[in-house]
Amino acid sequence: MARAYHTDVIICGAGPTGLTLAIELARRNVAFRLIDRSPQPFPGSRGKGIQPRTQELLEDLGILDRVVASGGEYPTARSYTDAGPIDRAATPPPPTPAEPYHLALLVPQFLTERRMRERLAELGHAAEFGRELIGFEQDDDGVTARIAGADGAETVRARYLVGADGGSSFVRKTLGVAFPGRSLGVAAIVADVRVDGLAWDVWHRWGDGTRGREFSLCPLYGTDLYQLMAAAPAEGEPDLTPAGLTALARERTGRDDIVIREVAWASAFTMQARLADAYRVGRVLLAGDAAHCHPPTGAQGLNTSVQDAYNLGWKLAAVLDGAPAGLLDTYEEERRAVAADMLGLTKRLLGEARAGEMRRGRDVTQLDIGYRGSSLGLPCPGRDKGVLPGDRAPDAPVTGAAGQATRLFQLFRGTHWTLLGYEPGTAAIAPRRGLRIHVVGGDIRDTWGHVRDAYGLEPGEWALIRPDGYVAAVTGTAGLGSIESLLDRVGVRPVH
Ligand SMILES: Cc1cc2nc3c(=O)[nH]c(=O)nc-3n(C[C@H](O)[C@H](O)[C@H](O)COP(=O)(O)OP(=O)(O)OC[C@H]3O[C@@H](n4cnc5c(N)ncnc54)[C@H](O)[C@@H]3O)c2cc1C
């Protein structure tokens, strides 16, 4: 006889990945437990760059404004060179109707996580800190996990387990999934510090391009802290006390007026580039740093991790709601390839940073990440303009039929799929649970032509948008039947 389930999903790890997945499941009314072995939330600033694509995701989760208000824009970088200080301000291109966010934001990771926990509380859930996953086994029907806390250990039966438990993932190791790659041989220090003697409005950098001499202090807006990043000393264990870091500052900057008064959090680490061989083994999945790790150059880690969870969340909820379990295979198919590319990008940026010439181009924004060729998209032979299946679904300001200003992102916001028709006449499909249908020329107006420009749709064409904001299909009215078949496959069914 099948054993009873205590919950649907156990999420192991309440860092940014686990929290994002929890929000995604909570807003779809999926039962889950979110556990973390640490007695309290992570206190450090480490993943402090929030890229434009992640800002779009945070808008969908309903926390973008709160996250923005918790930090700020990246400050001007001031490099101290033999020829004197050189300031370099970031000059991102202006936002466009299709891409409303172009600036990377600087928000300490502990504040981003706090905003996520607040959102989770609004949805009626909380992370359980001080509870460690100490063992699990799976069978055809579910996963049985052992979870230890101060009050003893419990056995929990769930349908799925997600390892969002960071780079040294217990879940990955227990599964026996290999984590090939290599140490990059770069030892670094990152610390959150209170400092005397420095201007607050710039990111102070010394030793750029001088291997082993790098030292920087970046103000963390929303706090009174700086993030210190430095190459670790070549010899011995780094001294992470205020006195030790003050001595390092003096040695690297040649200044004795920079005093590290207090260390709120500090870590010494060796940079790695590794990618898990598999993201799913039966009913156990890996996400975030548990599946990939890489150097912090280009601020990609946290962003890639929360986008893993954003890709996985709706699929897991759909499968729990009756969609075929094969839908979960598209998670690894889509996200592992993204992580492999990102590993290449961060290694290249590390090389450039060490040569003193790092160029953060469009690729760090993650706006061009997509899933073309994914088995989830409907083939679209011959289409040579506008969006294609797998592409990120662009934003576009539009007006409602009553004349009010709105945006496609506002219409996409939530857990549903969206079918967008472009002046299709009378053609349509029947309503389904979990699908919203919007029609240009019907309930919305392409007043400024932004939908036409961004999507390249002709009158009579339709685009199907996934819950995570990627295009699944583009077709004429004759292809609406294939869109209905795709929706059947992902568990979005007609209402009888
Ligand atoms: C030193 C350093 C600097 C970084 N700098 C940057 C940066 O500048 N920009 C950037 O984008 N990214 C950066 N990153 C990466 C970024 O911090 C990570 O990508 C991000 O934290 C990944 O989130 P996660 O939720 O997957 O893992 P984590 O944040 O590591 O969270 C994993 C959680 O799992 C919990 N856990 C582990 N084992 C168990 C268990 N058995 N049971 C229960 N809970 C468990 C842990 O306590 C932890 O809270 C940096 C990382 C490091 C280590």
Quickly describe the structure:
The protein is an alpha+beta fold and 496 residues long. It has helices spanning 16-26, 52-61, 64-69, 109-122, 170-175, 242-253, 301-320, 329-354, 408-412, 450-455, 480-489, and strands at 7-12, 32-36, 49-50, 72-73, 76-81, 84-88, 105-106, 128-129, 132-138, 143-149, 152-163, 181-196, 202-206, 215-220, 225-231, 259-275, 280-281, 284-286, 292-293, 397-400, 405-407, 417-422, 435-440, 444-445, 461-465, 471-476. Bound molecules: flavin-adenine dinucleotide (FAD).
Q: What would your notes on this structure say?
A:
- The chain has eleven helices and 26 strands.
- It has helices at 16-26, 52-61, 64-69, 109-122, 170-175, 242-253, 301-320, 329-354, 408-412, 450-455, 480-489, and strands spanning 7-12, 32-36, 49-50, 72-73, 76-81, 84-88, 105-106, 128-129, 132-138, 143-149, 152-163, 181-196, 202-206, 215-220, 225-231, 259-275, 280-281, 284-286, 292-293, 397-400, 405-407, 417-422, 435-440, 444-445, 461-465, 471-476.
- Strands 1, 2, 8, 9, 10, 11, 17 and 18 form an eight-stranded mixed sheet that branches.
- The chain is an alpha+beta fold and 496 residues long.
- Helix 1 (16-26) packs parallel to helix 4, helix 1 (16-26) packs parallel to helix 7 and helix 7 packs antiparallel against helix 8.
- It starts with 6 loop residues before the first strand and ends in a 7-residue tail after the last helix.
- It is 25% helix and 29% strand.
- It folds into three domains: 7-71 and 103-181 and 273-365, 3-Layer(bba) Sandwich (FAD/NAD(P)-binding domain); 183-272, Alpha-Beta Plaits (2-Layer Sandwich), CATH 3.30.70; 397-489, Glutaredoxin (3-Layer(aba) Sandwich).
- The structure holds flavin-adenine dinucleotide.
- Flavin-adenine dinucleotide binds next to helix 1, strand 2, strand 9, strand 16 and helix 7.
- The site of flavin-adenine dinucleotide has 35 residues, from helix 1, strand 2, strand 9, strand 16 and helix 7.
